[in-house]
Amino acid sequence: MIKRKIIDSFWNVLTYLFSSVGIIVLLLIFIFVFSNGASTLSWNLITSDYNQTTYVLSYKDKYDGGNFEYKCKDDEYFSSYWGIAFTDTVNTEGVDSVIISYIDDHSPLLNGLLDVGNDNYHHLQVNQYVTTALLVGEEGNIISCPARKGAESMAAGFNRGVSITTLNLVDGGGGIRGSLIATLYLILFTLILVLPLGIAAAIYLSIYAKDNWLTHLLKSLIDMSSGVPSIIFGLVGLLLFVPMFNALVVSEGYSILAGALTMTIMLLPIVISTTKEAIDVIPKKIISGSLALGASQTQTTFKIILPNAIPGILTSTLLAIGRIIGESAAIIFVMGTQVQDHVLPNRGGTTLATHIYNLMGLENPNYKLASAIAIVILMSVLILNILVKLIGYRLNKFGRKH
Amino acid sequence: MEKIFEIKNVNLYYGEKHALKDINLDIYKKKVTAFIGPSGCGKSTLLRCLDRMNDLIDNCKVEGSIKYNDKELNQYDTLTLRSNVGMVFQSPNPFPMSIFDNIAYGPRCHGIKNRKALEEIVISSLKKAALYDEVKDNLKGSALALSGGQQQRLCIARCIAMKPDVILMDEPTSALDPIATLKIEELINELKKDFTIVIVTHNMQQATRVSDYTAFFMLGEIIEYNTTNELFKNPHNKKTEDYITGRFG
Lengths: 402, 249
Ligand SMILES: Nc1ncnc2c1ncn2[C@@H]1O[C@H](COP(=O)(O)OP(=O)(O)OP(=O)(O)O)[C@@H](O)[C@H]1O
Ligand SMILES: [Mg+2]
Prior knowledge:
The structure holds 2 protein chains of 2 kinds.
Chain A: H1 2-37, H2 43-47, E1 53-59, E2 76-79, E3 84-90, E4 96-103, H3 109-112, E5 113-115, E6 121-122, E7 129-137, E8 142-146, H4 151-160, E9 161-171, H5 177-208, H6 213-225, H7 230-247, H8 256-280, H9 284-292, H10 297-326, H11 329-335, H12 352-360, H13 367-395
Antiparallel strand pairs in A: 1-5, 1-9, 2-3, 3-4, 4-7, 5-6, 7-8, 7-9
Helix pairs in contact in A: 1-13, 5-8, 5-10, 7-8, 7-11, 8-10, 8-11, 9-10, 10-13, 12-13
Chain B: E1 3-14, E2 17-28, E3 32-36, H1 43-50, E4 60-68, E5 71-72, H2 78-84, E6 85-88, H3 99-109, H4 115-128, H5 132-135, H6 148-160, E7 166-170, H7 178-191, E8 196-200, H8 204-210, E9 213-218, E10 221-227, H9 228-233, H10 238-244
Parallel strand pairs in B: 3-8, 3-9, 6-7, 7-8
Antiparallel strand pairs in B: 1-2, 1-4, 4-5, 9-10
Helix pairs in contact in B: 3-4, 3-6, 4-6, 6-7
Bound molecules: adenosine-5'-triphosphate and magnesium ion.
């Protein structure tokens, strides 16, 4: 009796131990991702380009100096001479830099800086990064303000300079706008393909298909293919869909379209089986009830079966979106790893997940940006999962019992 | 008396299983015909032959001739046939939609779109099914919120909305309590003025209360078919007598 209790508690402790190790590892990953990524994550990150645009600007004329006024926030440094404020920040690549945080409406810099590259006037904006500035003082002395010296010294330098020889600006860069759009494109195109196909197949399998060996074979194939590793689908996409779109002359090399086809093939089994599950729980007597009223099979499908399968269809849609957001292996093969800012369906690009892959493959892996993207991915997947739970809870009229 | 169904030498197989054997039966217009018999004897199967719901069963094969209004059943298209021959199932099966939409479902499927016409059909069907007073303030409410007995009357109303000639009922009260059952039986007595009714029942009293004719089935065969009065008072066959006196099955 006592011996059995001891054995029992031994196994109990072991179970707790192992499961807590799993949970702790998971927690550590979350902590790592959040502590690394949270500081980088910002609206700016989401809306800006990955590739930077650099400008070399100058203000050659001697400026007499205004007496601008601005109430600085804690971390801001204002040059009252030029009417511009700087702030210390960390750029999207995780490097300490100086950002323009305020420009007075009457500042000569707003529209008066000449772009050395094309002789046009540059419209200065807040949130552009200053890498270096070279100014000329009253006595013709050169004042150099590199970003690494910080915003305070930058503002002080500007206050002493009367003209600007060069101002090196960096606009954007390190953002994930392109990858985000590519991800949305991929989701959109994949859903356009996979939903009609998957729903039609599910309806066919549960309503129209005769109960014979072919149907059984089909069903087991579908079940099996949901276990195929995604890299295999990537191979199929690379060997089949990429050349296919190239042959159709819509693309050259990688493309989001090929990605969408690949994901369609990969997700079809999930969409079919979730939809089919939803159809199969609709009580048979309701379907016969419709047919017995002289409704045709098509009417029954559209008026009874589909409306009642909508929770299942929504669930499968959300699951599919989750898989697309999280997928990397298959996508690298058909969409490449080159981050794009101008996303086109017939060109390659990275999704959020493969953007991380790209970052980690760089000479200096950018952990901060990668973690920030990971947060975006984790959040989206979390929201999707909550939605799935809510739908299952709210809309399931028949439950799983019937 | 006018025959509405003429069933001649019907044999039915589910795959290998011979479920109906040489059935010969006439069903009369504007009468209530009851099918009785022990479980598994083929009552539901024959009932389903009459609106060709058996067509939906993969391995089901029917031989012989069934005439509906003097025309072979096979020559009707199933959609027309089933709007003329309605069916009420053993357990209530309202659609998961509003009461109104449930009843308007059949007419809508047959192309009636006019809101006013649909409203008329819904109200008159509900009245005929003796349900109107109970639900008139809640036509937009979900049909699934009704009680079992109300749901079954809703299914009858749904059937009536198609303006059928025949209503087939497969044990329509087996899932209901005695009071709801009584209501349905009263309803059947009311409906037989307008419709031909065929009802499957396990309840002898119910058969005597509602039906004009009764067919007794055993093991896929019709043992005896007669007016209800005669069959229960004066059974010709020993098996019938055993069954109705409760000495069997
Ligand atoms: N879809 C089917 N496939 C195969 N066999 C069936 C099918 N439906 C019924 N049967 C068989 O046919 C026989 C008659 O069935 P049926 O349902 O007509 O009986 P019933 O008289 O209605 O019985 P109950 O009173 O229990 O409802 C039974 O032996 C049954 O097993
Ligand atoms: Mg039955």
